[in-house]
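Homework help board

Subject: predicted structure for assignment chain

Our instructor gave us this sequence and asked us to write out the predicted structure in token form, then describe one feature. I got the tokens but I'm not sure how to describe them. Can anyone check?
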Amino acid sequence: MGKGDRRTLRGKLFRGTYGRSRSHDTNRPQRNPAPKPAAESAKARS
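My token output:
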């Protein structure tokens, strides 16, 4: 594990590549969660 290891942060820095060990955006907003079913919102209004 070191500069030649493709799976470690140090290896990614050495090679100049990206991947799971060196992702770009850590503060990326999450995908929108699945919308609630219409039946629940209709019951709340009644």
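Reply (TA_rk): Your tokens look well-formed. For the description, you could write something like this. The chain has two helices and no strands. That's the kind of observation they're looking for.
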